Amino acid sequence: MTNSEQVTLARDCEATQVPSGMKLHLTKGSRVLVMQTLGGAFTVITEQGDMARVAARDADALGKQVAPAAARTEAPAAEQGPVDEKLVWEELKTIFDPEIPINIVDLGLIYDCRITPLPKGGNRVDVSMTMTAPGCGMGDVLKADAESKLLAVPGVTEAYVEVVWEPPWDPSKMSEEARLALGM
């Protein structure tokens, strides 16, 4: 969703200021404008004019619900064989830039993704990603999101995301679909 909606917070909650990455405390009864609801997170504008990202775990403070992840019926990760690389990429596509309604894969933020079988079973996924700007403070937030979501992929027992700055990101790294969505 990218249509704005004003809501009153039902309880206190934490948020992350965009793009600085600083923590904000939002108080019960304050009003926010929900600007974007994608990938389970919410981008809001506070009464003070700050843009912030509210995590899925605090959806109820906004009077919202987050659809639960699809139930996985596969065997435990250590008992499974190779990881389906397509599922890894699909999971990464559920992470959205808090300022732009485009996922991090289509934005061209993922530079590398490697899946390595582990000797004792399971698999490790290593991802190299960047941000759209070197000063972006959302790197740790998006990194944590990616690691968490990768661990939900059947067969993945370890996930490590490294935020890199070389080569620098530029709009040419976006998918054609992302460029069209942004009118480029």
Q: Can you characterise this structure?
A:
The protein is an alpha+beta fold. It has 2 domains: 5-62, SH3 Domains (SH3 type barrels), CATH 2.30.30; 77-181, Fe-S cluster assembly (FSCA) (GMP Synthetase, Chain A, domain 3, 2-Layer Sandwich), CATH 3.30.300. It is built from 3 helices and 9 strands. The protein has helices at 85-92, 139-150, 176-181, and strands spanning 5-8, 13-17, 23-26, 31-38, 41-46, 51-54, 110-117, 123-129, 156-163.
Q: Features of this protein?
A:
three-stranded mixed sheet, GMP Synthetase, Chain A, domain 3, SH3 type barrels, 184 residues, 2 domains, alpha+beta
Order of adjacent strands in the largest pleated sheet: 1-4-5-6-2-3
Query: What is the CATH third-level topology name of the largest domain?
Result: GMP Synthetase, Chain A, domain 3
Report helical residue fraction: 10-25%
Tally of discrete structural domains: 2
| N-end to C-end Cα span | 21 Å
The CATH superfamily of the largest domain appears as: Fe-S cluster assembly (FSCA)
Order of helices and strands: EEEEEEHEEHEH
Strand content: 25-35%
Mean pLDDT: 88
Helical stretch count? Answer: 3
